[in-house]
Design goal:
Number of helices of chain A: 4
Shape of chain A: globular
Order of helices and strands of chain B: HEEEEEEHEEHEEHHHHEEHHH
Strand content of chain B: 25-35%
Shape of chain B: elongated
Oligomer: heterodimer
CATH class of chain B: Mainly Beta
Number of helices of chain B: 10
CATH topology of chain B: Lipocalin
CATH superfamily of chain B: Lipid/polyisoprenoid-binding, YceI-like
Structural class of chain A: alpha/beta
Radius of gyration of chain B: 19 Å
CATH architecture of chain B: Beta Barrel
Strand content of chain A: 15-25%
CATH superfamily of chain A: Phosphoglycerate mutase-like
Largest sheet of chain A: 6 strands, mixed
Distance between the termini of chain B: 33 Å
Radius of gyration of chain A: 15 Å
CATH architecture of chain A: 3-Layer(aba) Sandwich
Chain lengths: 154, 291
């Protein structure tokens, strides 16, 4: 990857359990299915030998758990950004401006912001559905063009 | 007859503002040393900057210390950091150089002193066949050659600011100002350091800059346009609407003989640009941007 081209990988957290009682949305934990999906994603990433130069995650429990299951090697060096929690398209746009433009960056966050952001970047007429634990690997070019390299979903 | 009547009206309206063949060319853009910079912000990548090296232009004297600038920039002579950038910038989504190889700028009349003392210059830029008003901010660049010109051209009660700028420390200051200009002109200046491939003629240009004639002055100016105003609507989410323009112009005094020769081929005015100079407010309304 040269300085004119970087990769942005958007990962939506894996499925979470519905909040119980007065549990805050922020504290929702992964469901059994979500846990399994995140582990399958980790196996796929390993198989692809996909490495990340920078990792950013929403600090919610479900995003951190997804990261820990799929990419345990990045638990310690991941940046937890409060502004990623339930970030909408505009917030993600603003956040990207704050990330150093280099290499391959991973954002672990939430929908609908993630899929709307991907749609706006790539100029899709309508956002493509991003299921829980879904991943979109995008190529961004300095000339402003963004395109989908590949996607993964459980 | 309607088109003819329209042209007559245009000529009548613009008679005062536009330089005609009788308007003397006071200064000529030194194409070997001058260039135009442009910068646009791209999401995640920051400001992407390019340089347009091929341009021509003149400063016309209108009398009473007033002048008017004409610039013509070739969008095909474009340098950027990489071929990808260049492809995009010269492609149909940006300058569309194949179809629109020229950018024209024509200023409204302004005081000659502004070129040295700094200030704003109104005008109209024509890009991709669309003309819009633009305001350039001229950065203060004291220059002895301009001061001498103004002394010759200006009425007795104008131009004090330029004389003050160049005479503050006497003749020695004027000489060193030129020397400073010469050193800084090696690199593009309006946007700071720009990493672009050197022009093929850079060695010759650098050598020429090292021996800046005393009848030359450097003028730096910057302004902004909105690309959507000129039909550039691609990648709206990732590429900012605002395009920053920077002019790095070396202006050289023109002698009378040269002026007579250049005036014969100097008319570069488009009807839209002419209308904009006569009535800058009319440009935006007469050519509404497509939505």
């Amino acid at each position: 990857m040269n300085s004119d081209m970087h990769e942005l990988v958007l990962l939506r957290h894996a499925e979470a359990r519905a909040p119980h009682g007065k549990q805050d949305d922020f504290d929702r934990v992964l469901s059994a299915r979500g846990q399994a999906d995140a582990e399958r994603l980790g196996a796929w990433l390993k198989q692809q030998n996909l490495r990340f130069d920078q990792v950013y995650a929403s600090p919610s429990v479900r995003t951190r758990s997804t990261l820990a299951s799929a990419l345990p090697d990045h638990v310690l060096d991941a940046h937890l950004l409060p502004q990623l929690y339930l970030a909408d398209r505009e917030a993600l746009q603003a956040l990207l401006e704050q990330i150093p433009p280099r290499g391959r960056a991973l954002l672990v966050g939430h929908n609908p912001g993630m899929e709307q952001f991907a749609g706006a970047l790539c100029g899709w007429p309508a956002p493509r559905a991003l299921p829980t634990c879904g991943l979109l690997r995008l190529r961004l070019e300095a000339a402003g063009k963004a395109s989908l390299i590949e996607s993964w979903q459980p | 007859m309607k088109p003819l009547r329209g042209w007559l009206l245009l000529v009548l309206c613009c008679g005062v503002a536009l330089p005609t063949s009788s308007a003397a060319t006071l200064l000529q853009v030194d194409a070997a040393r001058s260039h135009v910079e442009f910068g646009v912000h791209v999401l995640w990548f920051g400001k992407v900057i390019g340089v347009l090296d091929k341009l021509s232009g003149r400063v016309h004297a209108l009398g009473a210390g007033r002048v008017q600038v004409d610039l013509r920039v070739d969008t095909r002579a474009l340098r950027m950091q990489s071929r990808d950038y260049q492809r995009f910038a010269s492609g149909p989504e940006f300058f569309d150089s194949a179809q629109y190889p020229r950018i024209d700028f024509r200023s409204a009349p302004f005081a000659l002193a502004t070129l040295a003392s700094g200030g704003t210059v109104d005008g109209a830029v024509t890009l991709r066949g669309i003309t819009r008003n633009v305001v350039f901010t001229v950065l203060p660049q004291p220059c002895a050659a301009l001061a001498a010109l103004q002394d010759a051209d200006a009425p007795a009660d104008s131009g004090g600011s330029m004389r003050a700028a160049t005479s503050a420390s006497g003749a020695a200051a004027a000489t060193s100002a030129l020397a400073a200009n010469a050193a800084m002109a090696v690199a593009p200046a309006v946007f700071g350091s720009i990493v672009v491939p050197a022009a093929a003629t850079s060695t010759a240009a650098d050598a020429a800059v090292a021996a800046v004639p005393r009848d030359s002055c450097r003028v730096l100016a910057r302004g902004n346009i909105r690309r959507s105003d000129f039909g550039m609507r691609g990648h709206r989410f990732t590429v900012a609407d605002r395009i920053e323009l920077g002019l790095v112009l070396w202006l050289r005094r023109v002698d009378a003989a040269h002026d007579a020769a250049s005036a014969r081929g100097a008319s570069v005015l488009s009807p839209a640009a002419a209308a904009s100079v006569a009535n800058p407010a009319a440009v935006s309304s007469s050519t509404p941007p497509p939505r």
